[in-house]
Write a structure and sequence with these properties.
- The protein is an alpha+beta fold and 456 residues long.
- The protein folds into four domains: 91 residues, Beta-Lactamase, CATH 3.30.450; 109 residues, Beta-Lactamase, CATH 3.30.450.20; 64 residues, no CATH class; 145 residues, Histidine kinase-like ATPase, C-terminal domain (Heat Shock Protein 90).
- Strand 17 and strand 18 form a beta hairpin.
- Helix 2 packs parallel to helix 3, helix 6 runs antiparallel to helix 7 and helix 10 runs antiparallel to helix 11.
- The longest helix is centred in the middle third of the chain and has 30 residues.
- The N and C termini lie far apart (63 Å).
C-alpha cells in the first residue's frame, strides 16, 4: 500500500461486513471514542464510507476527511485498498482542528457520510446546480470528469420520473431539503441508469448553497427497438454505438483543452490559452449537437408518445427559471418568473415541458442584452394552458420567424447552438396537443408562447 504523504499512519483492516477486525492503537482508540467495539462495525462513518466504496469499486480509494473525535475534530488522510475478503486501511495525518460551529445542514452532511458507504461515486453542485465536484471513481462510467465541472447537473443526468410523475430532485430543490432514490440516465452513456441521493448544502447565512450527493449504478436502460429504415431522419444506431464513439473522444478533447486553458501544468503563451478555450467551446458545441441528435431521433419516430400526466405549468416555469438564473446573472439579466403561489394545471409530459421551457428561457437569456429583463407569464387560452417567455432582445423579422422552427436552421452563422432546439421543442409541444408560436419584430424583442392542454 502506497502511503506517501501520510503522517504517522495507523493501519487497520475491515472484513467484508465492515467490521474492524484489526487496528493499530490510534485507529482502535478513535473507533472506540466513536462508540465502536473491537470486531464490530467500524464506527467512524468517514472511514467506513471509504472502506465500503473501495470494496464496491474494487480499487484503492484515497481521500482526506475530517472526523469528530469527542469534543474536537481531527483531519485524517485515509487510504482504503480492497484485498480479498476485506479492505486494508492506512490512516495518517491526525491533525487536530477546532470543531466547526454548528450550522444549518450539519445534520444532513453527517447523514451524507453514511450515504457514501453504498455509493459508486460522489458529486456536488453549487446553488445553481452547476457541477463543482465529481469523484474520480466516476471515470469508469463518464471518462475524464473534468469536462463536466462547471456544467449544469442536467447536462450529466437525464432525470426519470417516478410512477406518480414526481421528480424527487425538483421537490427537494424547491424546499432545500434532502432527496433520495432519484433515478436518472447518464447522458454520456448508452442508457446507463443511476440512482441519486443528496443532501442540501447550507452556507453560513442559512442560504441554499447546492447539493452533495451520491450515485449508485443501476442496470442499463434498454434502448428502444429500431424503427423501420427510413422512418427517421437520423439512424437509430446514433443513440447507441455512434453516439458513444463520438462522445468519448470529445469528452477527452474538452477536458484536455480546459486543462491547457487553465494552465494547470504551468504557464503558456496567452494566445495558446485562448486557442485552448476555443477548442473547449467547439467541443462543448459538438457534445450539445450529439444530445440534440439523440432527441431528434426520438421525436421523429412514428411511435413517439409523450408521457402525458397532470402537471403544474407554473411550477415547471419556476423550475426552468431557477436552472437558468446563474447564466442570467452573468449578464445582469433579471428573470421575472411566476409567483410562488401561482398555479396553472395542465395535461402534458413534465420532463418534456421542462426541456422546452429551458430551451425558450435559455434562448431569451442568450439574446437579451445585458442589464435587461426576461418575463415568464402563465395564462389560459380557452382549453389551452400557456407559458409566455418574452425578452428585450433584438427581435426576429417577420420573414425569418417560420425559419427558426426548421431543422438545423440558424439566422446567422455567428449564432450559437445547433439549429435543432426550437425544431425539437415545437415537435414535442405538438406531440402533447399544443404548440409553440412566436410574436416578434426586428429590434423589439421576442415573445414565445408554449401551449399545452389545460388540466382540471
Amino acid at each position: 500500500m502506497d502511503i506517501e504523504g501520510m503522517v504517522d499512519p495507523a493501519f487497520g483492516r475491515v472484513d467484508a461486513d465492515g467490521c474492524l477486525i484489526a487496528a493499530d492503537p490510534p485507529l482502535a482508540d478513535l473507533n472506540r471514542r466513536a462508540g465502536g467495539v473491537p470486531g464490530k462495525s467500524l464506527a467512524v462513518p468517514q472511514i467506513a464510507a471509504l472502506a465500503k466504496l473501495a470494496e464496491r469499486l474494487g480499487i484503492a480509494v484515497s481521500r482526506s476527511v475530517i472526523a469528530a473525535d469527542g469534543d474536537r475534530d481531527v483531519e485524517l488522510h485515509v487510504q482504503a485498498e480492497p484485498d480479498g475478503d476485506g479492505v486494508n486501511l492506512a490512516v495518517g495525518g491526525w491533525v487536530d482542528r477546532e470543531p466547526a460551529q454548528p450550522a444549518p445542514g450539519d445534520a444532513a452532511l453527517r447523514e451524507h457520510d453514511f450515504m457514501r458507504a453504498d455509493a459508486d461515486w460522489l458529486w456536488e453542485t453549487d446553488h445553481a446546480l452547476r457541477l463543482t465536484a465529481i469523484s474520480p471513481d466516476a471515470e469508469a462510467m463518464l471518462g475524464p470528469v473534468a469536462a463536466y465541472i462547471g456544467q449544469p447537473l442536467t447536462g450529466l443526468f437525464r432525470f426519470v420520473e417516478r410512477a406518480d410523475g414526481a421528480l424527487p430532485i425538483l421537490n427537494a430543490l424547491a424546499e432545500h431539503r434532502r432527496f433520495e432514490r432519484q433515478e436518472a440516465v447518464l447522458r454520456p452513456s448508452d442508457g446507463q441508469g443511476v440512482e441519486l441521493t443528496a443532501v442540501p448544502l447550507i452556507d453560513g447565512n442559512g442560504r441554499f448553497a447546492g447539493f452533495r450527493g451520491t450515485a449508485v449504478a443501476l442496470e442499463a436502460v434498454p434502448v428502444p427497438a429500431s424503427a423501420t429504415p427510413g422512418d427517421a431522419a437520423v439512424p437509430d444506431v446514433f443513440s447507441g454505438q455512434i453516439s458513444q464513439a463520438l462522445r468519448t473522444p470529445l469528452d477527452r478533447i474538452v477536458a484536455s483543452a480546459h486543462s491547457i486553458e487553465a494552465q494547470l501544468d504551468g504557464p503558456i503563451r496567452g494566445d495558446y490559452a485562448e486557442y485552448a478555450g476555443d477548442i473547449a467551446r467547439a467541443g462543448r458545441h459538438l457534445l450539445g449537437l450529439i444530445d440534440d441528435l439523440a432527441d431528434l431521433q426520438a421525436v421523429e419516430r412514428d411511435d413517439f408518445r409523450p408521457d402525458v400526466q397532470d402537471i403544474d405549468l407554473a411550477e415547471i416555469a419556476r423550475d426552468a427559471a431557477g436552472l437558468l438564473s446563474v447564466r442570467a446573472s452573468e449578464k445582469n439579466i433579471r428573470i421575472d418568473r411566476p409567483a410562488d403561489d401561482e398555479r396553472l394545471p395542465a395535461r402534458a409530459d413534465y420532463q418534456r415541458v421542462l426541456q422546452i421551457l429551458v430551451n425558450l428561457v435559455g434562448n431569451a437569456v442568450r439574446f437579451a442584452p445585458a442589464d435587461s429583463q426576461v418575463w415568464i407569464r402563465c395564462e389560459t387560452e380557452g382549453d389551452l394552458a400557456a407559458v409566455v417567455v418574452a425578452d428585450q432582445g433584438r427581435g426576429i423579422a417577420a420573414e425569418d420567424q417560420p425559419r427558426i422552427f426548421e431543422k438545423f436552421e440558424r439566422l446567422g452563422a455567428e449564432e450559437p447552438g445547433t439549429g435543432l432546439g426550437l425544431y425539437i421543442a415545437r415537435r414535442l409541444a405538438r406531440a402533447m396537443g399544443g404548440d409553440i408560436t412566436v410574436d416578434s419584430a426586428k429590434g423589439q424583442g421576442a415573445r414565445f408562447v408554449l401551449t399545452v392542454p389545460v388540466g382540471n
